[in-house]
Amino acid sequence: MESLVSLKSQEEKPIALVTGASGGIGSAIGRQLAADGYRVALQYHTNQEACQALCASIVAGGGEGIVLDCDISSAAQVEEMFAAIEKQWGNVTLLVNNAGVARQQLFTDMTEERWQEMWQVNVSGAIWCAKRALPSMIHEKRGVIINISSIWGMVGASCEVAYSVTKGALISFTKALAKEVGPSGIRVNCVAPGVIDTAMNSHLSAADIAALKEETPLGVIGTPQDVAGLVGFLSSPQGAFITGQVISPNGGFVIV
To answer: Does the active-site annotation cover 163?
Structure first.
């Protein structure tokens, strides 16, 4: 595992782990948390270059970051990742389960391999990371877990059935876990973004984007910073009385 650490500040800071940090939303969350004063561990599995560039920008701005290559679908690799963070800095106090994969296809065309990949990354990955983060959080009677779901986990989407199932599972995971660990002072919330301007939606045509804007009451699609700002709020003292909730930054596209 590779690391890049700022030497500018050795003072005690809270420690955040952001999975899927090489993507558009993950990188925005990483920058937000660094600006909020966290030491930020940035996990990637397929896009090392983007994650290293993100870490370099955080360090250049006076923050602290480390880059970690981990297949979060493997509980053993998750264990190694947390051990590396603890050796470098200490216990994770904020976990953002952002990593995910999406596939647009008919449900009848879904293969077992595709299903296993999506479930293992989108759901099992979040579960293994939370399970590994919780013992120290419970011991210290503090901690925040934020799961990044999707509006499709709330209402479902045609041609994204498997994706919708996995994101719906994250919502149920959030609600149940929040009840279980709340007495230990740990908050668990879910952010379910709407259409966000990221590479994941780069397949959409200009006409598709225009149609989505027209369907959105605010008349725009979201930005990664819209999601990152909400994560920053939920992890801050201002969000101290919020747990077990699903909050959807979607411009009014879905209202439930």
So the answer is: yes
pLDDT digits over 26-41, tens only? 999 999 999 999 999 9
Residue from 152, 163, 173, 253 carrying the catalytic annotation: 163
Q: Hey, which residues does 189 pair with through a beta bridge?
A: 146
Separate counts of helices (H) and strands (E) for the chain: 9, 7
Q: Which residues of the chain have pLDDT under 70?
A: 1-11, 200, 202-203
- Residue 138: Cβ within 10 Å count: 15
**pTM beyond 0.85:** yes
Tokens coding 244: 């077990």
- Please tell me whether residue 182 adopts helix, strand or coil conformation: helix
Full set of structural domains in the chain with CATH? 15-247 (3.40.50.720)
Nearest-CA neighbor of 166 among 186, 147, 185? 147
Which segments within the chain are labelled E, that is strand? 15-18, 39-44, 64-69, 94-97, 143-148, 186-191, 246-247
Picking from 161, 155, 164, the residue whose alpha carbon sits closest to that of residue 105 is 161
CA-to-CA dists, residue 7 to 10, 21, 115, angstroms: 7, 22, 43
The sign one gets for the Cα dihedral 229, 32, 190, 192 is positive
